[in-house]
Amino acid sequence: METTVAGFADRLFQAALGMTDLLAIHLGDRLGWYDALTTGPATPAELVARAGGDERYAREWLEQQAVAGVLAVGGDGRFALPPAAAEVLTDRGSLDYLAPLARMLAGAAVQLPALLDAYRTGGGVGWAAYGPDVRESQADMNRPWFEHALPTAVAKIADLHAALGVPGARVLDVGCGAGWSAIALARAYPQAVVEGVDIDPPSIGLAEANADVPNVTFRAADAGDLPEAAYDAVFAFECVHDLPRPVETLAAMRRAVRPGGQVIVMDEAVADAFQPEGDDVERLMYGFSLLICLPDGRAHTPSAATGTVMRPETLRRYAREAGFTDVETLPIGDFGFWRFYRLL
């Protein structure tokens, strides 16, 4: 904690610089200017010729990006995107792809008037209100982890890996969003039958468009409508903390799994208990909670109002109220911001 006036003022000033950089990155991402720079350095005129836009705005943006240290400037005056920045900002398959983070926070900022009203009245801001920027950014940021890391992570759990490898195994992904988790499971276990469900129809539309394997299907549905004893494994990836009624959903997942089947939850890897000296992951998760997840949860009545920072003991309490006996933390480490649990 900064205790001097000058120190705290500098912290706020640095935060303002970071916010400016983040919003400028959002502009470059959505305008396609970073992608255009991956083909080579460009002047403002060359950039808009490749990707569209207004040349005067492009010049201001290019200069700002250079001053901020994102772009380099050659001796010929052209602006270039260095390889490291190119991977973070344009490589949609990289585990370090973070351009969607700018898109998500910019999309949340648009809702500040509605958020102020919710904070004053105790209401909420529903997921649909945040629109494509937030919906798509979450999917795009999670996609590399699901595509490249999820199969290896699941394979570390021997009995789960074996169950998914049985021909005809039925697998359910609750709260599947744009479908990348379900698609990754379907690719990794081609003999399984994978189904994704989500309450948000636009997300299901994205999932159906993203699906490229025959053994995965998607449908818009509430988890309360799940069939009983129908699946060998049920997953919930990064969604339990968003649910207004998590106990009801977890109970439906417990009923949906066959005897001997498994229920797996992946959620945020926050600390076991609140500490004022929280790490950067905690800071980021509280940011998501303030701006998106808690307001979304409170847009429904009744609501558990969990928020993004769902401690392990909170999940354990929800699981026990849903009829499970306990929660096991699975030995899957180094998986982004997330932790895996098995509900017993």
Give me the secondary-structure topology.
Blueprint: H1 5-31, H2 33-37, H3 44-51, H4 55-67, E1 72-73, E2 79-80, H5 83-90, H6 99-109, H7 112-121, H8 127-148, H9 150-155, H10 158-165, E3 170-174, H11 180-188, E4 193-198, H12 201-210, E5 216-220, E6 231-237, H13 246-256, E7 257-268, H14 280-297, H15 312-321, E8 327-329, E9 338-343
Parallel strand pairs: 3-4, 3-6, 4-5, 6-7
Antiparallel strand pairs: 1-2, 7-9, 8-9
Helix pairs in contact: 1-6, 3-4, 6-8, 8-11
GO molecular function: methyltransferase activity
Keywords: Methyltransferase, Transferase
Protein name: Methyltransferase domain-containing protein
Strand order of the largest sheet: 5-4-3-6-7-9-8
**Tertiary shape:** globular
Secondary-structure class: alpha/beta
Strand content: 5-15%
Indicate the percent of residues in helices. 40-55%
H/E element sequence? HHHHEEHHHHHHEHEHEEHEHHEE
CATH class of the largest domain: Alpha Beta
Largest sheet: 7 strands, mixed
**Domain tally:** 2
Secondary structure tally, helices: 15
Number of DSSP-assigned strands:
9
Segments where pLDDT lies below 50 for 5+ residues? none
Kindly report the name of the CATH homologous superfamily of the largest domain: Vaccinia Virus protein VP39
Protein name: Methyltransferase domain-containing protein
GO molecular function: methyltransferase activity
GO biological process, one term: methylation
Keywords: Methyltransferase, Transferase
